[in-house]
């Protein structure tokens, strides 16, 4: 495995599923360079998933304007107060990365990237992405591929 791509989000929660939609688009085109594609419902799953020598790309919805913008984020960006990935279960992406670092610093991925898809607000009971966020999925896929040299 050269990379692990993690799509974060909740299905049937509207734009919160942006990360999962990007992961599904990557599945349809074929994982880049043998990358592992992983779905995670919430950030708590990241603690274990970040324990790898491979590059990790996390794709998640972020609360930012305008909806549909694709953002490049890094762990230091999250610590500095950049647009925050949506957390529907309390633990945020930045907190999960820090927990993984504290739990096993020698096993933490040396290269963690975050692709954020901006949303207006999370929605608990909506089966589809908004038009703006759906239109951002191909751009987010391209951003993931660019991180991996594709």
UniProtKB/TrEMBL annotation:
Keywords associated with the record: Aspartyl protease, Hydrolase, Protease
Pfam families (UniProt xref): HycI
InterPro entries cross-referenced by the UniProt entry: Pept_HybD-like_dom_sf, Peptidase_A31
GO-annotated biological processes: protein processing
Gene3D superfamilies: HybD-like
GO molecular function annotations of the record: aspartic-type endopeptidase activity; enzyme activator activity
Family, per entry: Belongs to the peptidase A31 family.
Alphabetical list of NCBIfam families matching this protein: hydrog_prot
Record-given protein name: Hydrogenase expression/formation protein hupD
């Amino acid at each position: 495995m050269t990379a692990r791509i993690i799509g974060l989000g909740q299905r049937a929660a509207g734009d919160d599923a942006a990360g999962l939609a990007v992961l599904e688009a990557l599945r349809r085109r074929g994982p880049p360079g043998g990358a592992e594609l992983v779905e995670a419902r919430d950030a708590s799953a990241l603690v274990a998933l970040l324990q790898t020598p491979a590059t990790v790309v996390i794709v998640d919805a972020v609360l930012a304007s305008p909806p549909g913008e694709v953002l490049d984020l890094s762990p230091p960006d999250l610590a500095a107060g950049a647009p925050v990935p949506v957390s529907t279960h309390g633990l945020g992406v930045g907190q999960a990365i820090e927990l993984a670092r504290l739990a096993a610093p020698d096993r933490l991925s040396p290269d963690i990237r975050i692709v954020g898809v901006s949303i207006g607000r999370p929605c608990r009971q909506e089966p589809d992405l908004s038009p703006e966020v759906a239109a951002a999925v191909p751009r987010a896929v391209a951003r993931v591929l660019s991180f991996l040299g594709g």
